[in-house]
Amino acid sequence: MPAQAVTTEEAPASADVVVCGAGVIGLGIAWRLAGQGLDVVVVDPAPGSGASWTAAGMLAPVTELHYGEAPLLQLNLASARRYPEFVGELEQASDLDVGYRRCGTVTAAWDGADLADLRALATFAASLGESGELLTGRELRSLVPHLAPGLPGGFYVPDDHQVDNRQLHRALLTAAARSGAVTVPRAVAEIRRSGEAVAGVVLDDGTRISTPRVVLAAGTWSAGLRGLPADLVPPVRPVKGQTLRLRAAADTVPDLVVRAAVRGAPIYVVPRTGGEVVVGASSEEAGFDVSPRAGAVYELLRDAQSVLPGLSEARFVDVSTGLRPGSPDNAPLIGATDIAGLTIATGHYRNGILLTPITAEVVAELVTTGEAPELIRAFAPDRFRAGRRSEVSA
Asked: How far is Cα 54 from Cα 2, in angstroms, rounded to an integer?
């Protein structure tokens, strides 16, 4: 189950900042703000029970690359570069290991068409200054002997790593609490305003917290709060994803992350220390339904075993379902709004774990100084307004 926050049943009457949402994004922001001496309250009915719990923890800016997403790639790379220092600081602050592994990622081609796509991806990545190594079938088998025979080649990226998302969340809960942040196990129902400025929040039990600053980081639930003008409501939608956790013998799984597209269906296998393996992930537009779907579990197991046959002997541990917050262009919404004191940090979709360090850093800077770093200007929350041209897909 998700880690338990250090919580108070009694919400403080006031705070310097209220952070709506206690996933990794919200907690990362709360930790940074509390570390600067601000009185921070985090509000979430079930910290870490959503996408932060279901994620696989891949830190894969290159192998997650999609054409037309160059600005997002730069943001992802900037966050990946911060991870080692971020992890060191977080582990020291929390006294907890977050499972950060510099293991690399290999994407295996299923057939010749996949191999051609990987060559194009390698060329595109190189044009953006990123490197990886194209592999022949023999080189692929040499790097990952556990793979199914007959795969024609692959693409190896040594700098695409991983972190244990659940351990990361526990560490952020602890670090935020040790820095003085208070977590209230409720939901924010409404953002209160005084004219064109934030005045506070109303919780789902009617409790009010006065504050001049609110950070909206509630993932896919960010669009459901009352009190915002229609054109300021974050355009995020729930994208249902399921991941499986297996326990496998060490000699049946590789030491690095393996990705593939089995007959067009994407699959990834993420090995953890101690024999745990994360398999993911389904992607469904199913509203707020988080019930596991038997067909998705079957498809994930089938495709994972097609790539790594040794997984057929693995023990099934659990299936988890979460809702990724997707935006119209699949990039996050990070920045200030026309409401003074309201900052948005949501819509991270596939990259929430990866973007935790950079989002926490830039939002803390924005909240405390009022200045938006250049790095996030392409991801302004108002970029979807009529008449504005999004820079993310430029």
From this structure: 10
Cα(155)–Cα(177) distance, integer angstroms: 41
Domains assigned to the chain? 1-101+160-236+327-394 (3.50.50.60), 102-159+238-326 (3.30.9.10)
| Amino acid 391: pLDDT | 57
Rounded to an integer, what is the distance from CA 32 to the centroid of its chain?
Answer: 18
**Cβ(42)–Cβ(176) below 8 Å:** yes
Q: What is the sign of the dihedral through the CA atoms of 87, 88, 93 and 95?
A: positive
Rg of the Cα atoms in the chain: 21
Phi-psi region of 302 (alpha: psi -120 to 50; beta: other; left: phi over 0): alpha
- pLDDT for position 5: 43
Residue 66 is predicted with a pLDDT of: 72
387: Cβ contacts below 8 Å, ≥ 6 apart: none
Backbone angles phi, psi at 219, to 5 degrees: 60, -135
Query: Is the pLDDT assigned to residue 315 strictly greater than 90?
Result: yes
Q: Which residues of 287-302 are buried (b: 16+ CB within 10 A; e: fewer)?
A: eeebeebeebbebbbe
Give the Cα separation of 217 and 215 in Å (integer).
6
Distance CA 381, CA 340 (A): 14
Give strand pairing partners of 18: 41, 214
Distance CA 372, CA 380 (A): 9
Which DSSP category does 338 fall into? S
Residue 1, pLDDT above cutoff 50: no
The pLDDT, as a whole number, for residue 4 is 46
